[in-house]
Amino acid sequence: MFGNKNNKLLKKIEELEREVQLLRTEIRYLKYLWDLKEIEERTKPTQQTIFVDTKREK
Question: Distances in Å between the alpha carbon of 25 and those of 1, 21, 33?
Answer without folding.
Answer: 38, 6, 13
